[in-house]
Amino acid sequence: MKVIVTASYDETCRVIAEMIAGLVNEKPDCKLGLATGGTPVPIYKKLIEMNKAGKVDFSKVRTVNLDEYCGIPGTHDQSYRYFMNTNLFDHINIDKANTFVANGMGDFEANARELEEKVREGGVADLQLLGIGNNGHIAFNEASDHLISVAHIEHLTESTIDANARFFEKREDVPTMAITMGMGDIMAAKKVVLAATGLAKVPAIKGLIMDDVITTQNPSTMLKMHSDAVIVIDKELAGAVGYQA
């Protein structure tokens, strides 16, 4: 596991955007695992700028997203399909037929099986982008006494619902279940890149980079077992967890 410390979160996002663009330029038909939430938005903005400047071409790229809420359609402004379209896909030259976000409506179990198929279809992701929850959750794999390897339905913890409530009009509007890739799916990616910022992430990041313990109570610690995991944090967060580059 490699840790990169940057001067600021803006620099973190630039470093990761350049990693992704470099991969796409090297392998134009690569497969990307993508994430949602507040963390990757500036990364996607930088990729849009690079695409518009002719520095990266997404026309042959395939993508699969980590997760989707259960119970809201892709047209809902808080669905992850809507998020991906408005924050990235609508602004770059990607074929949306080559992008996959799980369906949050209908038969959730069948939708989870479809996500699992997409994770493996045509080979695993060349790069999986990740954020991290305050409790160390990766995608919607919540801290628990066990983790699930494959795509599945996850009941969200109160802390996750609280963290996501800022995106909804009322807390009670936040979905309580989600379809998510399993930890085995995430670990199968050839390269994993995790971005984090903010003091709320201190406990999770401390567990990830400051000791050798692997625990399902902090799902991110599973990344210690990955052969090519890169953790990118800014100096404020690094200082708060006591990490020295």
Primary descriptors:
seven-stranded parallel β-sheet; 10 strands; alpha/beta; single chain; 245 residues; globular; glucosamine-6-phosphate deaminase activity
The number of distinct β-strands equals 10
| Rg, Å, rounded | 17 Å
The oligomeric status of these chains comes to single chain
Catalogue the unreliable spans.
none
Q: How many strands, what sense, and barrel or not for the largest sheet?
A: 7 strands, parallel
SSE pattern, N- to C-terminal: EHEHEEHEHEEHEHEHEH
**Cross-sheet strand order for the largest sheet:** 1-10-9-6-2-3-5
Query: Helix tally?
Result: 8
Global morphology: globular
* Percent range of helical residues: 25-40%
Structural class based on helices, strands and sheet pairing: alpha/beta
Mean pLDDT: 95
Beta fraction: 15-25%
The N- and C-terminal alpha carbons lie at a distance of 13 Å
Question: Can I get a quick summary?
Answer:
This protein is α/β, with parallel strands linked by helices.
What does this structure look like?
With 245 residues, the protein is an alpha/beta fold. It has helices spanning 9-26, 41-52, 80-87, 108-120, 158-164, 183-188, 202-209, 235-241, and strands at 2-6, 31-34, 62-65, 67-69, 99-100, 127-130, 152-155, 177-180, 192-196, 229-234. It has a seven-stranded parallel β-sheet, with helices on both faces. A three-stranded antiparallel β-sheet has the order 4-8-7. β9, α7 (202-209) and β10 form a beta-alpha-beta unit. α1 packs across α2 (41-52). The longest helix is centred in the N-terminal third of the chain and has 18 residues, at 9-26. The chain is globular, with a radius of gyration of 17 Å. It comes from Candidatus Ruthenibacterium merdavium. Residues 9-228 form the Glucosamine/galactosamine-6-phosphate isomerase domain. InterPro entries: Glc/Gal-6P_isomerase, Glucosamine6P_isomerase, NagB/RpiA_transferase-like. It is an enzyme of class 3 (hydrolase).
